Amino acid sequence: MDYEIQAIQNEIAKESQLLAPLKTEIGKIIIGQEDMIDKLLIGLLSNGHILIEGVPGLAKTLTVNTLARALSTEFKRIQFTPDMLPADLIGTLIYNQKTGSFQVKKGPVFSSIILADEINRAPAKTQSALLEAMQERQVTIGDKTYPLDSTFLVIATQNPIEQHGTYPLPEAQVDRFMMKLKLGYPSKEEEHTILKIHGSGKQPETAPVLTKKDLEKARDLIHKVYTDEKIERYIVDITFATRKPKDYGLADIQDLIAYGASPRATLHLKIASKANAFLNGRGYVIPDDIREVGFDVLRHRLILTYEAQAEDITTEDVIEKIFMGVEVP
After folding, report:
1. Residue 200 has pLDDT above 70, yes or no
2. What value does the mean pLDDT of the chain take?
């Protein structure tokens, strides 16, 4: 068994170097935001959709655009609006007068990477169309169902401070996102560097450095990353602690959580932890990997009580207590 783990370690230590040029290429344009870039790569490797929340001007859209350009794969940006229809997203049937038949005109969702900009501006019907694409990785137009690309990935952005013309995402859809990232402002030095690079009028160009074949190979390797049974039980304990805090000596947060994380959170914690280990050139998962991705995997899956909201307690506060309370293997 030790020999197998060492073989996996050697293979992943070598193959994970493929991502170094990708991070370097993104770093030419995106200054700071290293955590967001790492989490985007984790989503890319895990084939898990990502929701990015932050105030305007934090380079959310620019980062996703840069990532897509650094990959030799198809990319579409979709600006969500209150008057957007499902057909604007998935496509529709168009009548051909010459043949007397209907032909399928596919929408922008038929791409490898989708940037759903300001996703919370779209109405319920459009959200439901995107939900099928995200979960089933297929689209139904008329009476036919069409599979999406094998590398299909949705990276969505939303603005947390503007409520006019927005629609809250349904919990069923929010749960489909593997991670929810919250962005903050850059440091003073980082903003000075941004000023020098992007204030000169000449923006650096991004060159493709990773092919679709390389990405699919990396995704296959993620599943080979070794996860010990103790680590798996630790992941399950973290999820269960969001549902039954008292069982883990966390009675003080029992009344703060209305609904805990779903089993999908358990699955996403494992695959995201594996991807984080891969990024660090390791062929095995350690508890630090789980903590590294835990906040992003869990923050949008916990629904707090009115009591917690009244006391200005956030999901991050609750998750921090859970990680402190659950025994580490």
Report:
1. no
2. 84
Domain ranges of the chain: 19-209, 225-325
Nearest to 217 by CA among 7, 16, 8, 4: 16
Structure pTM? 0.86
Would the pLDDT of 1 be above 60? Answer: no
DSSP-derived 3-state class of residue 158: strand
Could you report the per-residue pLDDT of 28-58, keeping only the tens digit for each?
A: 777 777 888 888 889 988 888 999 887 777 7
Instruction: Round the CA-based radius of gyration of the chain to a whole number and report it.
Output: 21
Residues 64-83 as b/e (b if ≥16 CB within 10 A, e otherwise) read: bbbbbbbbebebebbebeee
60-69 and 34-46 helices, crossing angle to 10°? 50
Fold of 19-209: Rossmann fold (3.40.50)
Contact 47, 153 (CB under 8 A): yes
The top-level CATH class assigned to 225-325 is mainly alpha
302: closest CA among 273, 247, 262, 271?
Answer: 262
Six-digit token pair at 93?
């049937």
The pLDDT tens digits of the residues spanning 255-297 come to 888 888 989 999 999 999 999 999 888 888 999 999 999 999 9
3-class SS at 202? coil
Q: What is the dihedral of CA 308, 241, 157, 171, to 10 degrees?
A: -80
